[in-house]
Amino acid sequence: MLGLRGRYESSNNVTNYPSWYVTGRAFDLILSPGQLNNKTDTILPLETFLTGELPSCSLLQIDKHNYNNYTISVKFLYAPNNTAINIIMKNIKRRYTSKNLIEMLKDIPDVDPQIFGNLTLNVKCEVIGFSSEKKLESDLSISFQHQCNNSLLAGIVFNNSMLFDDLTDLSTIQYKIRLANTKRRFRDFAQSIQPWDTTQLFSILAFSGPLDRSYMTGGNPGYWAEGFLTIQHALHLSIMDYFENVEGNVTNDILRGRVLKLKRFPFPPYSRKIIELGVLFLPTVFAFSFMTSVVYIVRNVVMEKENRLKEYMKVMGMHSWVDWAAHFFGNYCKMMITVGTITILMHYITENTNVLIILIFVALYAFTATYFALMVSTFANSGTAGFCPQYNTLVEQMTVMEHLKFFCKLKDRTWNIVEAIQLLKQLKLETKANNFAGSLSGGQKRKLSLCIALIGGSEIILLDEPTSGMDPSARHEAWTLLQREKKNRTILFTTHYMEEADLLGDRIAIMANGKLQCCGSSLYLKNRYGTGYRVVLVLNPKSSRDNIEKLKDFLTRLSDKITIQSVVGNELTFSIPPDEKSRFSYIFVKLEEKQSVLNVESFGVSATTMEEVFLKVNNIAESESGIVTVDNAQVLSSLNKLRECQNVDFLNGTELYIHQSKALVISKLLYYQAQLKQVLVQIVVPVLYMALFVWTATTFPDAQDQVPLIIDYKNYDTVDPANIYVNSLDEHLPQYASSVVSQWNPYTVKKISYVANNLTMANMTTILTNKCKNVRVKTIIM
Predict the structure, then answer these.
(1) I need a surface site. Which of 525, 598, 711, 712 has the fewest CB within 10 A?
(2) Which CATH number fits domain 527-638: 3.40.50.720, 3.30.420.10, 3.40.50.10350, 3.30.70.60?
(3) What residues form the membrane-spanning segments (predicted)?
(4) Which tens digits make up the pLDDT trace of 124-171?
């Protein structure tokens, strides 16, 4: 639009239009308003007769006899059918019948028939009467189904006062002019036929300046081009001829001053702005400006669910409606920027509209376009739990310190920045306090999640593998922090690190095959499921098989409760049960005495670990559930037998395609059986949409009769007062101006002001026109 600014924007003075004659005769069909070379507003296009090319769709029926001889057919229907009305309609027929229309143009003032050359135009008029309006409407409806090249111009219906043959009172006469239900000459920008709108008295000005400024007759809805004005004037004169009992002709009309001269009302000075072009695209831009916001809102909601941030905050004590309200108000505040921008633009387009009304309207539109269903609930209780899930539920656009502050207030706890800094220092995250969460490494994100669970002094802490993804150094830092914090909190955490469970857990629960197998302190579980103390003997590399057997015999003689666990290379491992703890000194002394004889280089002892306890509990659970451990040798034997099997002949060609198709069908059927609801939606919804489209296509609204528009000679009433300011030429001019305007609008002119002492009658029209632009008056007589 900026590129069109220099071409579109302009300042214009008072717009005056030329006048033209309305005769109420056949001349009106070809006379052009204003200048004769303006072929735009004629009822029948003059180029049809000057070029000899008949249009494909003409308002009336035109018959071409030769290159310069044409006949125009005009037909009127009327009701009711009696003597008086027949005489009036014969006068109508006489007015629209002409054997040589061009020759008779010499009787019309300011019209030169020589511009038509040797053109011959004959006009043939036909009037048909009906006994009732209902029969007339039926014939009109059938005839007007053909809009093009139809000689029928209008139907005329007289009121009940004209049912009698003898008419005496002119004031009681009323009539209806029934044109086609749609305009036959005027098209919109898409060249589609538009109906008459008799409910709207004045057109809406979408742009500055006069409406349809290129049309001398006022343009849309086309009272002149559709033939309404000439028919109305012809009826008026025909009724007058009936009461005066004269036969009207062109000469008598001119001599008696019955030729009407019309002129479009002048328009005051105006300026055109490029912003007016935006009005055409405003509804589309208005709708799409909020559609993009909806896309981003949906993306944010989906991303939050994907990161499981919503569930994380619900554990902290937040209710669902608070989360939805945050989405709503957060995005609505962003939309207020768009709302404010549109309001400013609309203010310059609609200068007479209150800015507050525009703002409220646009805000309500944005509200409804992005409305979320909010469930009203009670306020969330104070959060007493801290939660660190297995996944990192972090907002990448927030910093580390903002995370701690946000979740601390989410728990309804007092924000203490000293506490936050201490937590970060304990985990060596103080240097990342102002960094965005999206820039942290995996281990640092786990540290931040752990800090979020601990911030605010939550009494209950739930940790799901809090140290997963951390390096050994960071893991030990987390252990130190948890050991310090568990004094004043209740901490429940899950882990796969048995060392972590042994170090931090006061009570340890072991799950296997989805079931809780045991629960107790570390010492209790080791005593219950442990193998006691494990002793590892390192043998001399030169030791033989016999030396190992001698060593086993020696150990069993020391205690019959010693169990040999494994012999791997030069290492022999055996276990001593806890109840043999009193014999440890004796066993180790004997080992030292026989160390050289038994070829033992060194030996060490260790207690049972939690890993051993876990493995033993897992084996017990598998044995109880019927899970059998298969030996590797058995697996290798089975594989060898499979290799010895004969080769299988594979399908190919058509059989392969049939087999694959059958497999796909079976797969789909099994899927449909498992996802029955989804399949029903996929099948039923398209069928319902198709049925809806078919139903919509068959329920287009039919053509409806327009509301009658009554035309009378009453003053146009308005509640808007008009203030007319004129310059004073003499003491009589203000009274003259007041009487001129009040003659047509006696209720609108409230004040005449003296603003200067200089005025000429020449600019009187301009002043009245400028000051009366908001007052709807019928005419100003000077």
Answers:
(1) 712
(2) 3.30.70.60
(3) 277-303, 324-349, 355-374, 679-698
(4) 999 999 988 889 989 988 888 888 888 899 999 988 666 655 666 667
